[in-house]
Design a protein that fits this description.
Blueprint (H helix, E strand, L loop, with lengths): L1 H11 L2 H11 L5 E4 L2 E4 L8 H14 L1 H6 L18 H29 L1
Antiparallel strand pairs: 1-2
Length: about 120
Amino acid sequence: MILSLMDVAKQKGDTEKQNSYWNTYYCQSNIISAEGKLYGKYCKNRFCTLCCSIRKAEIINKYLSIIKEWQEPYFVTLTVKSCKANRLKVMIVKLLQGFSIIKEKQKKDVKEIKELS
């Protein structure tokens, strides 16, 4: 995928993105062993799957003590295409409505499962 993105950036003449994509391409390509531990260099780009996984784990660990208190935690990600500034409020309202629908459906499903048990 990164190589395809690099081709597009090259066609558009965007050297900054090309450099960023090369950085991602070589993410963790050199592993160094020192004192019984392995070290590597991460690219930390937002489109790098490895770095995004690490970032997500760090965020989850920040909230882990709170999450452990919940009876049934769920991880939900809602995404939409970007919109123009004048449509942002409408998009936020739609996202919140969508999230409410998901929560209500989940509550209903859990209730039905408990009634069957």
